[in-house]
Amino acid sequence: MMVDIAIIGAGPAGGSAALFTAKAGKKTLLIDSDQSVTKKAWLENHYGVPEIKGPDLVEVGIKQAQKFGAELVKAKVTQIEKTEDGFQITTDQETYQAKVVILATGFLLDLAETTGLATKPGTEPRVKAVFDVDAAGRTNVEGIWAAGTCAGVSVHTIITAGDGAKVAINVISELDGARYVDHDILKA
């Protein structure tokens, strides 16, 4: 099965990216290994949410993406290989095909070496290295993007979620050949 976009990691960055890509009508696969650091968090600094447990925030984000058609697979990605028309993503359970990949792996950069992704030192406390991305979220491997903590933004969920949305919008825009904007309007 070939999907338009495979997103690896379903924390705030990956879940937010999946929400935007699925809502834009892109066939979206969200692959999560259940290792999100957000699953250990208590949040009182996420805009618009008085307080929430990290696991609940992640669950709500995944459900929002699923509402628009994103498919969630619980598995650990072990390899990403470039193919003629995109990427082959191997997990500990199955293999998937995607035109584009968005990495939202938080602190985990284990795919960097085997995939040939460039990294650079991290600037956040406890973040040793991050994927080296441009302002849009592109890595050095064409077709692979990165968002959130693994792309060098602050570890705060509101920031990683926003970065996931930003990267998704950039990916959608590139796939569509025109700037993508998603605005819903109140119905009177």
Automatic annotation (TrEMBL):
Record keywords: Flavoprotein, Oxidoreductase
Residue ranges of every copy of the FAD/NAD(P)-binding domain listed in the record: 4-109
GO molecular function per UniProt: oxidoreductase activity
Cofactor list: FAD
Alphabetical list of InterPro entries matching this protein: FAD/NAD-bd_sf, FAD/NAD-binding_dom, Ferredoxin-NADP_redctase_2
Gene3D superfamilies: FAD/NAD(P)-binding domain
Complex formation: Homodimer.
PANTHER family per the UniProt record, alphabetical: THIOREDOXIN REDUCTASE 1-RELATED-RELATED
Name of the molecule in the record: FAD/NAD(P)-binding domain-containing protein
Organism in which the protein naturally occurs: Paenibacillus nasutitermitis
